[in-house]
Write a structure and sequence with these properties.
By secondary structure, the chain is of the alpha+beta class. The chain has 2 domains: 53 residues; 120 residues, Zincin-like. Helices cover 59% and strands 13% of the residues. The protein has 6 helices and 5 strands. The strands form 2 sheets. A 3-stranded mixed beta sheet has the order 3-5-4, with helices on one face. A two-stranded antiparallel ribbon has the order 1-2. A hairpin with a 4-residue loop joins strand 4 and strand 5. Helix 3 crosses helix 4. The N and C termini lie far apart (38 Å). 20% of the residues are buried.
Length: 176
């Protein structure tokens, strides 16, 4: 079973034949985690509101960008290492930089890089970008086998790709 808290609400994944009472017990046992995640999402909503409604000029824009970069450098590598462990892969390094044209990259040496700008995405979309790059540690291409690895860990990766395209357009409009 798995739980995911999204901006739309709680998503519970469980085997079809699992009794509802067992699912309810599982959800109840994760109540603290669910509340903490909901709190994170609320904080992210507030950050996005500040981002979307920023009217303070270049100085405020630069200050906000620095805060976002610092947050990305704290959160993205930690999440990448956790997902790497779950996927059974081990990158040589995980870094966050300032790339504008790519969300992430993986080289043949196993070094993974992410753009700090993915911090503006929701958690599932960030996870997709991370999973995508980690999958390159198994297949350094975009073959059917590569996409099979991505789908194994992010079955709705097509939805996440669409969200990234929209985020990219928004960031371009806002000059990020």
């Amino acid at each position: 079973m798995s739980l995911r808290v999204t901006e739309e609400g709680l998503v519970v994944r469980a085997p079809l034949r699992l009794p509802a009472a067992e699912i309810d017990r599982f959800v109840a046992s994760k109540e603290r985690w669910i509340a903490a995640r909901a709190s994170e999402i609320e904080a992210l909503r507030k950050e996005r509101a500040a981002f979307e409604g920023m009217l303070g000029g270049a100085e405020a824009h630069a200050r906000f960008a620095e805060e976002c970069k610092a947050r990305a450098k704290r959160e993205i590598p930690a999440r990448a290492w956790a997902l790497a462990a779950a996927m059974g892969v081990r990158p040589v390094s995980v870094r966050v930089g300032s790339a504008r044209t790519r969300w992430g990259s993986c080289n043949a040496k196993g070094c993974i890089n992410f753009s700090w700008r993915i911090i503006f995405a929701d958690r599932d979309t960030i996870d997709y970008v991370i999973i995508h790059e980690l999958a390159h540690l198994k297949h350094l291409n975009h073959s059917k086998a590569f996409w099979g690895v991505v789908a194994r860990y992010m079955p709705d990766y097509g939805v996440q790709r669409a969200k990234l395209r929209e985020l990219h357009r928004r960031l371009q409009r806002e000059n990020w």
